[in-house]
Amino acid sequence: MLRHLMVTAGLALCAQFAFAAEAGKIIFVAGQAQVVDRAAVQDGAVQEGDMLTTGADGFMYIKTLDNGLFILRPNSRARIVTYHVDPVNPANTRIKLELLSGVARSKSGDAVKLARQNFRFNTPVAAIGVRGTDFTVFTDQDTSRVAVISGGVAVSGFAGACSPDGFGPCEGIYTRELSAAQRGQLVQVRRGQVAPQVMSSGGNGPDNIAPPRNDEPIGKNGGINGAATAPAPSLDPIKNVVIAQLPPLAPAPVVNTPPPVVEEPPALPVEPPLVVVVPTPVPPVIEIPQKDSGILWGRWQRIGAPPATIDLTAEQERSQLLAVRGNFALFRTPGKEYVARENGSVGFRLDSSEAYVYTNYGPGIRTTAAATINNGRLDLDFGNKSFATSFDLTSKDETFKFQSKGDITANGRMYGEHAQGRPGYLNLDGVLSNERNGSAAYIFDGVIDAQRTVNGATYWRK
């Protein structure tokens, strides 16, 4: 009986997380602050879609359903557009925040960390995705700036396939990433700008525009993002068809002359022709099995003498661009959609790879050296929806060990935990496929030491 009650309670808790309209609770409020048209109060609930406003002296701290943090500083307007959390299947989680103006801070909660691909922070001009992150944003109608406290962000302007309506980061050649290791820098997006800029904060960061209170958790930094605009309704024009009417014809004159009587001979019977019906043969239906979606990876720009191995623009016409990291891109080719298994584990062997080590000697001074990858391991645990990988990277007679772990989504995407600038750990984006009886690939970057970084790609087979 006790076990039954515990299971029932657990299911009820899951249902509350999956369907509750409440996005969070206010844990601190100071100065002028409103939720919709009422004054904000401590312990007050914030619902999905509520407009949040702070005045010149206003602060509002909101604890989200999954123990995250959303903070509004003075003279700010924002909304928690969607906060749908599914703890049973994180792939169904959908979270979107929107800063219309002012300064806000977002610290990822437990659900965001499990479903980073479904988190979006919009401003009027930019889309922000996270790598399991704590960041601050400033925006007005034309400019947004983003700074990172911990983790990392991926920032894009609204153009092409990146729209305010989407969820997750906009991945592409015009996306710019910023991590907490890049202290004193921020990402800036201006309206109409094709690609964001990574630049020195120079006193223009969010914390400079609206400093945090002394009781705000953790330290300082500044940032940006874009607010969603509601799409205009599509109205189909109603066409009126006008039918011209002709004037009525005059009636025919009545003739009273009786018609002559004509006797017709009796009709002879007519034999119908013999019709032979030949059935049309029906060709047999042959079902051609759809091939599995595949993996395409490569270097999209030249490094020294070696030319690029993939045409990024042309390939986007044929395949789905999944991620770009440094000089490498990852695509999924058309075909039968991959569906991850519900349980079990599998290991892959390293089939091929390409990597380069970059050494920075100062502003504008960087050398490049090719590297090789050996002793690779990639292990998947479908029951826990997780993976772990490691390899040895060798360049100029030096060998460095790298590793990473992360999450597997239902459609076979792999997202690594953010390395946060730690030597020997990888930031990576990957994908699984059923082609060739099972394959995988990921592109990555990482830090060797204070001067050297690595960027590359790996391809794996069962």
TrEMBL record:
Pfam hit, one: FecR
Q: Where is the signal peptide?
A: 1-20
Q: Which parts of the sequence are annotated with region: Disordered? A: 198-226
Q: Where is the FecR protein domain?
A: 52-153
Q: Sorted alphabetically, which InterPro entries does this protein's record hold?
A: FecR
Recorded superkingdom: Bacteria
Protein name according to UniProt: FecR protein domain-containing protein
What organism does the UniProt record list as the source?
Massilia eurypsychrophila
